[in-house]
Write a structure and sequence with these properties.
This protein is mostly helical. It contains 20 helices and two strands. It starts with a strand and ends with a helix.
Length: 458
């Protein structure tokens, strides 16, 4: 099997049904696997930080929240170069490399957590390397966007993103089981404290899966010769107003998803010390599952409508969480966080779905009346720029993985509770509502669907 595909035209229905669909599906499957593991590694510290005090680390609450936040910051920043890695090196090649890079954070974690005298700065550096897992999303989404026709991108990107996002729930479900205390962790063995916690397993457990994903990418994925974007295309995408509008909205959707996923276990532990945390993985799980549904709704109803409604619910949920935190109601807080996760998932899908719609529409309009060659070039340019924008907006949106845990840490340090941070989040969701309405709902054009080629040429 050739790893490089030189002829690729997914928008041609005959090509897609005969050849393209099968190849695209195979690449999507292994992309999801690699991205899922990347997300798991990225969020490792959301669980690990909650156990550090039990194994002898004397870090403050603010330092623990910082360990949770640092991978979010590094993951966001590293998404910028990861976005452009696919056009530069090829989707298959970069999936292999990015998977193997995950050995750095997993091995470093497994070593340092067995040494309670590790200085905080060194532990923070190790936590930062987990951000490599966050970068995988940008390159994976950019890569898959090249494989699918525009009319099928919503579902494909939704499945790819959801499959990756589920890695967050995987790590929050599986790591507590494998680090103990309990029979499973004891059977694995190794270094443990008097509490029976084998914290090094949090890193070691992912190494076989990392190697599996790299091998799968090597044998079953492809590079597309057409998946190229030059610096001019990339800069053109940054000059487009939609890039920055979508990036702001994506902070509200994906930034909330990854930020709450990272911070929730530690937040609940600090606010409700006597409550166990076995169910915290459910938030990330339902948010992940909801993501392709958001893309589907955007295809059917309109990305702007769905995104706007999501921010309304998120704003109300943040007020509800404030109320239940003040009332010391664990059930109320968890229930409304579950609502918040559902809306972040749907909003993730609907917001990302708007990108290829907007760029395809604008480029086809610019090519009207200039002939078939201009139309084809417009489609190719839109596809390249959409891939760049998907990566850029995912990078900016991922900053929520840093700011939300840091905001909770600072709020608890200053006031003893998380109400102040949630109040700021409420105001931010109001700005997202206003931006969505002003840019995409008050005009005649609603981001409902991809215009047909006939409509675009009319």
């Amino acid at each position: 099997m050739s790893t490089l595909i030189t002829e690729w035209n997914p928008d041609d229905d005959a090509f897609w049904e005969k050849t393209g669909k099968r190849i695209a599906r195979r690449n999507l499957i292994w992309s999801i696997i690699a991205e899922n593991i990347g997300f798991s590694v990225w969020l490792l510290w959301s669980v690990t930080a909650t156990r550090l005090p039990k194994v002898g680390f004397n870090y403050t609450t603010d330092q623990l929240f910082l360990l949770v936040a640092i991978p979010g910051l590094i993951g966001a920043l590293i998404r910028f170069p990861y976005t452009f890695a696919v056009p530069k090196f090829g989707g298959r090649n970069w999936t292999i490399v990015s998977a193997l890079l995950l050995l750095i954070p997993t091995i470093s974690l497994s070593v340092l957590v067995t040494r309670p005298d590790t200085p905080f700065w060194l532990m923070a550096v190790a936590a930062g390397t987990a951000g490599l897992g966050g970068g995988n999303f940008a390159s994976s989404m950019a890569n898959i966007s090249f494989f699918y026709p525009d009319k099928k991108k919503g579902l494909a990107l939704g499945l790819n993103a959801a499959g990756g996002n589920i890695g967050v729930s995987n790590v929050q479900l599986l790591v507590p089981i494998l680090i103990g205390p309990g029979a499973v962790a004891t059977a694995i063995g190794g270094y443990h404290t008097e509490s029976g916690i084998y914290l090094q397993n949090a890193g070691l457990m992912w190494i076989p899966l990392i190697l599996l994903s790299a091998a799968g990418a090597y044998f079953f994925m492809n590079n597309l010769a057409s998946a190229k974007s030059n610096f001019k295309d990339q800069m053109a995408a940054t000059r487009n107003k939609h890039t920055w509008i979508i990036a702001w909205l994506y902070i509200g959707t994906f930034g909330s998803f990854i930020g709450y996923s990272a911070a929730l276990p530690l937040l609940l532990k600090m606010q409700f010390p006597t409550v166990t945390l076995e169910l915290t993985f459910l938030g990330a799980l339902i948010g992940s599952v909801a993501r392709p549904f958001g893309g589907y709704l955007a295809d059917k109803i309109g990305g702007a409508r769905i995104t706007f409604c999501n921010f309304v619910v998120m704003a109300l949920a943040s007020l509800g969480i404030i109320h239940f935190l003040d009332a010391k109601s664990y059930a109320g807080v968890v229930t409304l966080f579950m609502v918040m996760f559902i809306t972040t998932g749907i909003g993730n899908g609907s917001t990302f779905r708007m990108v290829p719609v907007l760029f395809r529409r604008d480029h086809l309009r610019a090519a009207q009346g200039r002939g078939e060659a201009a139309r084809v070039e417009a489609l190719n340019t839109a596809r390249r720029q959409s891939a760049a924008v998907l990566g850029l907006t995912s990078a900016i949106g991922a900053l929520g993985g840093f700011f939300i845990p840091r905001s909770f840490g600072a709020s608890i340090k200053a006031t003893g509770g998380a109400t102040t941070a949630l109040s700021y989040f409420f105001v931010f969701y109001l700005t997202c509502m206003a931006v969505t309405w002003w840019c995409y709902m008050r005009t005649r054009f609603l981001v409902n669907r991809i215009p047909s080629l006939a409509e675009a040429d009319a």
